[in-house]
Design goal:
- The complex is a heterodimer of chains A (228) and B (417).
- Helix content of chain A is 35%, strand content 30%.
- In chain A, strand 9 and strand 10 form a beta hairpin.
- Chain A is globular, with a radius of gyration of 17 Å.
- Chain B folds into 2 domains: 204 residues, no CATH class; 203 residues, no CATH class.
- Helices cover 56% and strands 18% of the residues of chain B.
- In chain B, the strands form 2 sheets. A 6-stranded mixed barrel of chain B has the order 2-3-8-5-7-6, surrounded by 4 helices.
- In chain B, a hairpin with a 4-residue loop joins strand 2 and strand 3.
- The chains are: A alpha/beta (228), B alpha+beta (417).
- The interface between A and B is medium-sized, with 30 and 24 residues.
- Bound molecules: adenosine-5'-diphosphate and magnesium ion.
- Magnesium ion binds next to helix 1 of chain A.
């Protein structure tokens, strides 16, 4: 089976005060290895919730989630943390990086958690930063990098240990359109060259154009799913 | 690999500490200040106890005494140490003993031509006594006893005042000999003794031991063999050696060896009480500091909830996060503790060589003859016990907010404002 992600009849409802807010409503979705998939929809349509469920950060009320063959329901929280560490890369909208660590150290940090020896960590961190166009900026702290550069560091950290999938929740939302395009180009390149599966969410038309497959979400349901 | 891992963790912790420079400096100062006070105060207490014990021991009891069993409680004339020379022979062979002397005591009625008083008359060996006690140095009028003296007496200044005598005046002593006979003699005041301790100056009356033995029909017997040790630490070892020596000589029954704690139980109790009240004060100090530290730790974790959420999302286990936070808070604490030990030790060493003026000292100290200057004494114990307590309590204070991290859920933490 070459599906990295398999969602089956996922439901997730939030209780806000006394009102039930259905965030995800009966979503089934499979994502193939090597895909470059956009989850698109307006604000509040359930993109973040869906990505969090795929990433094991949030649990659905019903339905099953499988990532790389692992069925999430059966996993303990620490096994789930381990799975995230080794198989899933994350890029968030903001606050991605550890502010006290340099770009290279931020990338190193995940590898440290993974138990990779120091020498290899350094070599890999520098190599991946070169790949995302940040050579020479290894020792900059996040505060000394532009928003676009910070997101590139986040992408570098997400893909450095060849995860099964990278989940990016509106990675371009805080960037101007040119910088956002640059980041998308980078992700696309990494997807092609390193065969990393990307799933990213957006509400930006221009960003959707980069997707190899566009899954449209409205009020927690998929209403359109097209591959190009 | 572990050591390599620790490196980035420690680097991260160290930089996190300096994220809020002012807060960290304040926290470190609080810890440093507490440790400084603890090092100094404990050194001061322990140093003054040693001074107190030695002052008290040198003026009256010695570190150790050999007595007849029961004499210490009853002070009965008949409970004597016979053949004291043999005990002296045993003592000569024991290392760590500085000096020893013999004394005998008798309650007697002492009269001048104006007044009478009931007094404990003590027979002393002038030469030996001078090696054991500081009495010789406290003569304020007249002179100290000499080996050839017979019916001469040294009187405490308050006692002399109440008897209205001065050197050269005559006193008559009336008491009961060891055999029940009447002991009576007339003596000349040779010297007046001023120790500064009222109780001592009000009750002291000393005559030469040989003369005492003749007057009170003691033969060659004495009541106390008084021993001083070269240092306070050696006392318990010497006590055991003396006991062994006495047993070996076949004089085990009938004789007991008492140390200063048994001879002056009030001093030990006073020290214990002073220590306990000191401990309570220190504990309050440490707890106050711990709360301010707890506040710092809580704040620094609360501020970073979103960061912790992100760290957990990318696969950091709660245990790992707790470790990171603990490394951070303990590094902060350690900086404060090390600074505190260094500063506290330096201050202590300064006063250790210059002394502290104690002219307005407490009653408890006065009672045991504390000199006008006290000297703190820095030791491994006084330098480390307080800071170690600070370390343990700060660790607990740091543990509490750190363990709270376990409850964090990545998604909620990341959306935390
Ligand atoms: N923690 C929460 N508590 C209550 N409602 C929530 C929570 N998170 C999301 N929601 C609601 O769930 C719906 C989907 O939200 P979200 O997944 O964040 O959408 P998107 O990322 O597409 O903007 C929205 O209506 C939102 O208000
Ligand atoms: Mg969202």
């Amino acid at each position: 089976m070459n599906n990295i992600v398999e969602l089956e009849k996922i439901k997730k409802t939030y209780l806000q005060g006394k009102v039930d807010i259905p965030a995800i409503n009966n979503v089934s979705l499979s994502i193939k290895k090597g895909g470059f998939v956009a989850i698109a929809g307006p604000s509040g349509s359930g993109k973040t919730t869906l990505l969090n469920i795929i990433g094991g950060l949030d649990q659905p009320d019903s339905g099953t989630v499988r990532v790389d063959g692992e069925k999430f329901e059966t996993l303990t929280p620490s096994r789930l943390a381990e799975l995230r560490l080794f198989k899933i890369g994350f890029v968030f909208q903001a606050y991605n990086l550890i502010p006290v660590l340099s770009a290279a150290e931020n990338v190193e940090f995940v590898m440290l958690l993974q138990g990779i020896p120091k020498k290899e960590r350094l070599r890999k961190a520098h190599a991946i930063l070169d790949d995302v166009g940040l050579s020479g900026k290894y020792n900059r702290r996040p505060a000394e990098l532009s928003g676009g550069q910070q997101q590139r560091v986040a992408v570098a950290r997400a893909i450095v240990s060849n995860p099964s999938i990278v989940l990016a929740d509106e990675p371009t939302a805080n960037l101007d359109s040119k910088t956002g395009q640059g980041l998308l180009e980078l992700m696309k390149t990494m997807n092609k060259e390193k065969k990393v599966t990307f799933v990213f969410s957006t509400h930006d038309k221009m960003v959707m154009d980069y997707a190899g497959r566009l899954v449209r979400l409205r009020d927690g349901s998929i209403f359109d799913d097209q591959s190009k | 690999m572990m050591s390599v891992n620790v490196k980035l963790d420690v680097k991260m912790a160290w930089r996190n500490i300096w994220r809020n420079t002012r807060r960290s400096v304040l926290t470190i100062s609080a810890i440093c200040f507490a440790c400084m006070i603890l090092v100094f105060m404990l050194s001061f207490q322990l140093g003054s106890y040693e001074t107190m014990i030695n002052a008290s021991v040198n003026m009256s009891t010695g570190h150790l005494q050999v007595q007849s069993a029961g004499y210490h409680k009853k002070k009965s004339m008949r409970l004597v140490v016979s053949q004291p020379g043999e005990i002296g022979g045993i003592l000569e062979k024991i290392p760590g003993i500085a000096a020893y002397t013999f004394r005998a005591n008798a309650f007697s009625l002492v009269s001048s031509n104006k007044r009478s008083r009931g007094v404990l008359v003590t027979g002393i060996d002038p030469e030996r006594e001078a090696c054991v006690s500081t009495i010789k140095t406290m003569i304020s009028h007249g002179r100290y006893l000499e080996q050839s003296d017979t019916n001469q007496v040294i009187v405490g200044n308050l006692l002399a005042k109440s008897l209205r005598v001065k050197p050269g005046d005559e006193l008559t002593i009336l008491g009961q000999g060891r055999d029940g006979s009447i002991a009576a003699t007339a003596v000349i005041v040779k010297g007046i003794l001023s120790s500064g301790i009222d109780a001592f100056d009000r009750s002291t009356m000393q005559i030469p031991l040989q003369y005492f033995q003749a007057v009170y029909s003691m033969g060659d017997a004495v009541h106390e063999v008084v021993i001083t040790a070269k240092s306070l630490k050696k006392v318990s070892k010497i006590k055991k050696d003396i006991q062994k020596g006495i047993d070996a000589a076949g004089r085990g029954n009938g004789l007991v060896v008492l140390d200063w704690m048994e001879l002056i139980p009030g001093l030990l109790q006073g020290i214990e009480m002073d220590l306990v009240s000191g401990m309570i004060m220190y504990l309050v100090l440490i707890i106050v500091v711990a709360f301010s530290i707890l506040n710092t730790f809580l704040m620094s974790i609360f501020e970073r909830t979103r960061e912790f959420g992100m760290l957990m999302a990318i696969g950091t286990t709660p245990g790992r996060l707790i470790k990171l936070v603990l490394i951070e808070s303990m590094s902060l604490t350690l900086v404060g503790i090390v600074l505190g030990i260094v500063c506290g030790s330096l201050i202590t060493l300064f006063f250790q060589s210059h002394g502290i003026d104690m002219s307005g000292s407490s009653e408890f100290m006065k009672q045991y003859g504390i000199p006008a200057r006290l000297y703190p004494r820095l030791s491994l114990v006084s330098a480390l016990v307080g800071p170690a307590a600070v370390f343990v309590i700060t660790f607990l204070a740091a543990l509490f907010p750190a363990v709270g991290i376990r409850k964090l859920k990545p998604v909620e933490a990341m959306t935390h404002i």
